[in-house]
Amino acid sequence: MNFYDWLVVGIYVFLSILIGLLFSKKAGRNLDEYFLSGRSLPWWILGSSMVATTFASDTPLAITEYIRQEGIWRNWFWWTLAISHVLAAVVFARLWRRAGVLTDNELIEIRYGGRPAAFLRAFKAGYFSTIYNFVVLAWVTAAMSTVLSSFMDISMNFAVISCMAIALIYSLFGGFWGVVFTDLLQFVIAMTGSVIFAVFAADHYGGMERLIEKVSQMGHQDVLSFFPGPDAPMSFWYTFFVFVGILWWSNHNADGGGYIIQRMMSAKDEKNALIGTFWFALAHYVLRMWPWIVVALASIVMFPDLGILKSNKQAYPQFMSAILPIGLRGLFVAVFLAAFMSTVDTHLNWGSSYIVNDIYKRFIKSDATQRHLVIVSKLTMLALGCLSAIVALFIKSITGAWEFVWAMGAGIGAVLILRWFWWRINAWSEISALGTSLIVAMGIWLYEFLSETSVPFYLKALLVVGSSLCVWLPVTFFTKPEKDSVLKRFEDRVNPPGYWKSSGNKKKDWRILISWIGGVGLIYGLMFTVGSIVLLQYHHLWWSVPLSFVGIILFWRGIFRYKPFIDKSA
């Protein structure tokens, strides 16, 4: 890093802090402004913000770790979530915007009633704002520290403190306004930089054709496959089928997920919530990842085994450190700072909203003024940032942290989806599903720690999801349903599809299913079309291109002819 590199980094940091300061007055008016930007965002801002916040500093490192260990196909761990993200766009984006709540936990006491609902709201707010948030923020901070230590001769502790301090400054002042507008800046920088780095990585070996040849000559041709190869171990196929068959509907983000829902609720209307969420899915799966995969493949050629690397997650930054010229090294650090800060600011803001709205305001000081609540929000955000930095020092494996967090909420997804469609789901359904997931996941983790053995991921998923299913289904039928008055209140507020006992109406429309299937086909078709072109695997185009065309036709017809669902009054 020379003067020009530092200049690039300095300009980026200055712009980020400036944006936070410019919005400080507007964000400080009330909680709606501080946490939802006054519910006034257009689709292109909220959708791009979703893309930016899911591009964390850990993401390229974790994808590189997956590819170096097992191959491109291992990315189905998160590719499969496209199914739930399209469902979120088609169905849940409009419902969440219509609900008019400040946080997704607030909906709990609208959908359910009584003490179980109050307990569930408080518990989920506390758990996801602290334990869950600490792990997520810790692994992205650890990933950023890995990047900085590859480019600069600084200690890991100093890197952790520096990274968290920068993100805290503009997040504290700008609130959600600062978050989404810095996300726009970060999205442009991160995407542009990722493409430039991929071009440099391929050119370093004479272009993509030569790079692919080198990977194949080294005996890693199976790494290039989008699916487990015919000679792959059976454990690969077990894992793949668990990814595709279970992950998308079982996780705690099945109906959108906390920080994605926060952006849905910040939309100026339901239409912008829908389009913004689908734009996120399109950019997230189709546009963003292939440059990272190119660099990951190039790192295999340069570092065929760990060698000088302490772990596979270091391969991405170490490779770029070796080939980037002066000036672009600063851009590389700026890109990862952008990725890091876009995730950290979101989790700090979102976690703070849980503690303030769902715990402090709901149970401790219900008569607090808006100014008082904004001040408490800033203090809460500061505390979350400091604690997360401490936890970051203990994160060793990024992909391991990804899978651990998934497992701890893996059994609740089906309940979160069904609560929008079926009157029989009650608070105890959700409590038992989440409780079982936490207990089983912690039990597996304790077994691995004590026995010093690793349980295969597919087996973890089957144990957690299966155990949860075996608990929450009986609990649902052996406990009393929610009162008719509670269900009627929820139905009147959000006009959900499905069957609702309170009104006796069965709201069925196959166009939901058509638009969902079409959207999923469109995303996967375009994703593999782009991937086939980038990786010169043209033999996939015979099915990926037709899938894209069929998908867009079904999606278009399903969405724009579904008038009763779009119009609440219909």
State the CATH architecture of the domain at 20-231 and 262-394.
Up-down Bundle
Return the structural class.
Answer: mainly alpha
CATH fold call of the domain at 20-231 and 262-394: Sodium/glucose cotransporter
Question: What is the straight-line distance between the termini?
Answer: 61 Å
Task: Please count the beta strands (DSSP E, at least 2 residues each).
Answer: 2
The CATH H-level superfamily of the domain at 20-231 and 262-394 is Sodium/glucose cotransporter
Radius of gyration based on Cα positions: 23 Å
Helix content: over 70%
As a percent range, the share of strand residues is under 5%
Low-confidence stretches: 564-570
Number of helices: 26
Q: Could you spell the SSE succession in H and E letters? A: HHHHHHHHHHHHHHHHHHHHHHHEEHHH
Strand order of the largest sheet: 1-2
Q: Key features?
A:
single chain, 75% helix, Sodium/glucose cotransporter, mainly alpha, 570 residues
Describe this structure in words.
It is a single chain. The longest helix has 48 residues, at 156-203. The protein is built from 26 helices and 2 strands. The chain is an all-alpha fold and 570 residues long. Among the domains are: 20-231 and 262-394, Up-down Bundle (Sodium/glucose cotransporter), CATH 1.20.1730.10; 518-570, no CATH class. The chain has a two-stranded antiparallel sheet with strand order 1-2. The radius of gyration is 23 Å and the shape is globular.
Short description:
With 570 residues, the protein is mainly α. Helices cover 75% and strands 1% of the residues.
